[in-house]
Write a structure and sequence with these properties.
Helix Hairpins, mainly alpha, 2 domains, 63% helix, 6 helices
């Protein structure tokens, strides 16, 4: 799947309302009876980033070198409660990211 943020035309920092508005705008531009394939692409993009936690997951796994603290900022800023188990996972992921050698260019390992 392509980048859902690009498909909907929203910034990665967009909130729930902005994502929903972009989705509705895209649906009006390509109704399912006129372009079913494009509609499905838009619907899947919306479903993958519809809420703050799913946007965090998309940003985490599609970023070339994710900054986990920056990725968690929207979740914490919006007051979403983060269970202790997720805080522990964030700490483990942060350690893994720091220890991992990220390729600087495509094809380089």
């Amino acid at each position: 799947m392509k980048d859902p943020f690009a498909i909907l035309g929203v910034d990665e920092e967009a909130d729930d309302d902005a994502v929903r508005a972009a989705y509705l705008r895209q649906v009006r531009n390509c109704p399912p009876d006129r372009d079913a394939e494009r509609f499905q692409e838009v619907r899947q993009a919306y479903e993958s980033i519809a809420d703050v936690r799913s946007r965090l997951g998309v940003r985490l796994f599609h970023a070339p070198k994710p900054d986990l603290v920056a990725l968690m900022a929207p979740v914490l800023r919006e007051g979403v409660s983060v269970p202790p188990s997720e805080k522990n996972m964030l700490a483990l992921l942060s350690e893994s990211v720091r220890a991992f050698h990220w390729p600087t260019e495509r094809g380089e390992s």
